[in-house]
Every structure is written in C-alpha cells, then in structure tokens.
Design goal:
Blueprint lengths: L1 E7 L2 E6 L19 E4 L2 E5 L4 E10 L12 E9 L3 E5 L6 E5 L4 E10 L1 H10 L10 E8 L1
Parallel strand pairs: 5-10
Antiparallel strand pairs: 1-5, 2-4, 2-7, 3-4, 6-9, 7-8, 9-10
C-alpha cells in the first residue's frame, strides 16, 4: 500500500484502529533523531521538519519479508497492535484506515527511510522550501 501523507509537527504514525494509543515520549525527539518510537498501539515515524508530505509504502506480511535495498536508514522495532487492522496517518488527518494485519498482537516492524537528511538540509536552508516527496519511507510489518 502506497500513500502520500502529511507529516505534521515532525511525525506521522501507524496506529491500531480503535485501539488506546499512547502519546509520543520525550526521547522520540532526542538527537540524533531516531527513525521511530513505539508506544501502546502506535509507532511514531520521525522527520526533521515541521510540515511536509512524505511518500510511504507499507507492507503487511504473514512472516519476515526480504529486506529492500537502496535506503539510507533502517530501524527494527516491536509493537503490540491490539486490533486486526491499523491506520497510517498524520497526527491530524485520517490517512489510510483499515490496513489488515496477518493477526493482531505483537508485531515486528522494519522501517527504511531515504531523504531524511536531505529534507533536513533543505529545511534548514529555507524553511519555506517545498519538501514534498523528498523523504521516502518503507515500512514492513509482520507478526512477531
């Protein structure tokens, strides 16, 4: 599933549909900025700018997928998603809802990103620069 999302206040997220989502933790915004942070029923994906459109592919698998090539950064995390479906969204928009998991419960995520440093450089040079599509994210999720 591919989506263009609004990342606002420096993040977008995956959240369990109808789940009790936790809040971002202060360490999510440490330096250097991590790719993602996990709370109950959600994973926050972090970028350097305040507002931009990001290109994101999400893949839901029944088992571990092959690792893709060509990304600058990677992280692997585990999260518990308490519902059988999840949403990919910005903090204030609906995004894409109803993405099916292989099964609800503990999930493994492999997060890849390219363009985050480039977006940061452009934003620091000109905060009004158009950053649409500079960052590309690929998120692979499967039962842990």
């Amino acid at each position: 599933m591919r989506a263009d999302l609004w990342s606002e206040h420096g993040f977008f997220l995956i959240r369990a549909d109808e789940g009790e989502m936790g809040h971002p933790l202060p360490e999510f915004f440490d330096h250097p900025l991590p790719l993602c942070g996990v709370v109950a029923d959600a994973v926050f994906f972090l970028d350097y700018t305040g507002l931009q459109s990001v290109d994101c592919d999400v893949e839901s698998w029944s088992g571990p997928p092959a690792e893709p090539d060509g990304y600058e950064e990677q992280a692997e995390v585990e999260v518990v998603l308490s519902t059988p479906t999840f949403s990919l969204c910005g903090p204030f928009d609906e995004g894409v809802e109803g993405i099916a998991l292989a099964r609800a419960g503990k999930q493994h995520l492999r997060v890849h990103c390219t363009g985050r440093d480039e977006a940061r450089r452009r934003y620091q040079a000109d905060p009004t620069a158009d950053l649409a599509g500079v960052e590309h994210w690929r998120i692979q999720i499967w039962p842990a």
